[in-house]
User: What shape does this take?
Amino acid sequence: MACKTVWQVFQRRLASVAAASRPSSAELMAFRSALFSKERARQQSLYPRTEKIEVGMEGPGLQGTLLIMNRGVSTPHSCARHLTEWHVNSAALALVDGEPWPLHKPLTQSCSLRLLTFRDSDPLLLNQAYWRSGAALLGQVLQNAFEDKFDVELLSVPEVPVTVGAFCCDLVLDPQLESWTPSEEDLRSLTRDAHQLIHKDLPWEPLEVAPAVALEIFSHSRCKQVEVEEKAAQSPRGTVTLYRCGDHVALSGGPHVARTGLCLQYEVTAVHSLGKGQWGLHRRAQGLSLPSQLQAHHTVWRKLRKRAEKMVEVPPTSVSQPVAPPSETNSVSPAPADR
Assistant: This one.
């Protein structure tokens, strides 16, 4: 009931200002988050009575472990909580019947389940999800970094392999900020904002939705509406996947890791200009991160950071093939709001 009330309030508020001006970032986040909650509640209502499923655990020391869970309610994270604290803290992604599965996505049938950690011998799928999550966190920081009078439009997140040395997030800033070039202090401010989200240890909550739902959630962004249509056309199920972190809702091309707290070492390294594009002056923000289980010595980190400053080149039709995290081998206009 509370979710419905919030959604109705913001729907009226946004409808009343749509013709006059763009809603503030905080208003958009609240509106999108309320619609996310409304759709999630609708999907949960599709399971009106408790139905049990059998989840066979796989992995070292878990062979033969069988968990009885609730269909449409229990998640891989729920399963981890029936094991040990180590599984809860270390699991970042899951394999359900061999397919990548977000830790907070409900299970819908009896299945086999393997919890993935950064110490596994084959890190490919998890590295890909981690790099994607780092980019999502960067986008969330940028969305909230500027004063409300400046619009920030997040573009689709390029899928890049870990081997390029940095994840990235493309965006368009308000025309008033076209001359802005980030200083080192600006980058440090963005990094501090990222660490605040990391410290909160927020879950990345997935939700698979019909395109119509996503179009309503992003009704104030023509750019995102185009991205919704593109992702739906590419999806075998004709759906799109959303992720919510706090109140921030974003589109995604694949699974994220379980929570922001896994991104222990994290730094925003650069913002490059890509020139004029469909939506205005396109920019590419970049960052670097290593998970809590794979920290780097500060001398190695400095070298990795230097590499992550170079602009990431994204081939238009490239397919990401991530590998393990790499080893050692100003004139400023209005700046990000100081928090």
User: Anything to note?
Assistant: The chain is about 35% helix and 20% strand. The radius of gyration is 20 Å.
